[in-house]
Amino acid sequence: MRHTDTEHREQRGTRIGYTRVSTVSQTLDQQNEALTAANVTKTFSDIMSGARDDRPGLAALMEYVRTGDTGESPILSPPGFRVGLFWSRFS
Prior knowledge:
By secondary structure, this protein is α/β, with parallel strands linked by helices. It has one domain (5-89): Rossmann fold. The chain is built from 3 helices and 4 strands.
């Protein structure tokens, strides 16, 4: 039996990522690498201060998620900028 992308997504969920940096002089590369290693298949991003609540990428993620999806967001820990993953299951 063949499933469409939508049917597959509804049955198994999607690993969704969110990345953000504060300025255009920063890069999302390290965060994107962490999400790729975590098998994330859909990523939303913002390049703006974390103090702002009007983040278009985060808003798009929240519109996209469905029950059963898993959200992943790399956490950069200064001073070594070690990348860890924060994740949450949407229900």
